[in-house]
Protein 1
Amino acid sequence: MKNKKFLIISCIVIFLIIIVGIVVAQYLINDSKQENKKNEEIEEIVTELFENSYKYYYYMYGDIKISDGYIVIEDETYYYVDEPLMTVNEFKKLVEDTFVSNMQYNLLEVEEKNEYINIADKIYVKKVENPCKNIHVYEFNDMKYEGDSEKKYVYHDQTRNPIYKENDTWKLGESIYSCDEY
């Protein structure tokens, strides 16, 4: 009789241990899935921020393709842009959505930059004297993240770039691109 009770209690204890093990394993799997989902979300956000930073740099300093068409305004010659570009307002929106607010003025109000105007739904540019012919290219296939819910560091290509949470949106603190060849 004692052995029977011991056997029943042992089976119940083993059964409870198995149940607890399954619950803990399920919790750990779900936690891991949530962490992976968060990493995928932040990776999408960072990828978009980096793409927008490239667009910013290209528009501001890049060798924009132009055609023979031009207009003259106040003794300044603007050439017709011969590639699809966003409008001036779309560009300003891109900067607002990509960079923290206290850097936007510094990024837009630089002296040596391409200058654009929209006339009759056409974009014209007065290019910087020495435009960037080759913007540095990064590889983003091995990004790592470190930080908290307000500031993170993104590590890639032996580079570290901070991103900041501003009004519930992640943004860059500066442009991440530079010119390899003028």
Protein 2
Amino acid sequence: MKYFTKDYFTSDLLSFSIKHVKPSKKAEIKNEAFYQSVYEKQYAIFQNNEKHCFWYLDPTKELKNIAIDTRISEEEKKLLTQVYENFPKDKIVYTFDENLCRQKFAERQRNNVALYSRLPQYITDKIADIRVFALGYASAEVIQLLRPYCSELKKSLKKVVDKDTAKAKKFLKNKISFDGFENFIIIAIEEKNGDLHIEGVDSYRITIKDAKIIEGQEKKVFRYDGKKPNSPISLVLAAEIHRVENLFEAHFLIQNISKTEQTELWNLTVRGTDITETC
């Protein structure tokens, strides 16, 4: 059986709902003007964070700004100066894309609305505007309902323990750290000479010998480029191994995130005679 499924991942996100929101009297009723004001406020924060990503920073310009900024102390100036002086000399300064930033935030908002709409009905019935909730505001009544819900959900998720991977790994020819692949970035999946090679960043590779893809063969893998802004990414959220008919069955729960932050959860399931890793 799979332990770390799409439903598990969704439940894990919902278990943090209580930390996502803060109380607001204005969230007690649906008000379009309040929603628009909160949306723009949260977008401004998002935009500011995006603008200060590594790709858009010009170290020469930042150093000049630091030198004349009277709001920061001399100690802070020294630390910031060291940071920018350590930037690569050939660093490319990309132009910030305001339209793309707007698209990304709108997609993030859509994703959050879809996620929090999956809260139990006794909670969603009390949410005046799920869009406002998705932006981080809720009534005191809703927050009171969230506390026990999130607490119980966290307890139930802790009971989901992968009992198979450790046992299955004992049958491998060589030791691998397969159960620690969270946030492993895939850049390519290639079938060659009967084996399946899963390529990751920094020359990391997982090879499944005599492989047969059971699930996920038709799915697309993004070729992540960490040197460019807004690069699409395919990220492993969880991985596990089982023994099935004297073969190894590897399960990967993967999330694809596009340039505009459209997301897709999918499963890659592969059977084979052995699993190896190369660093």
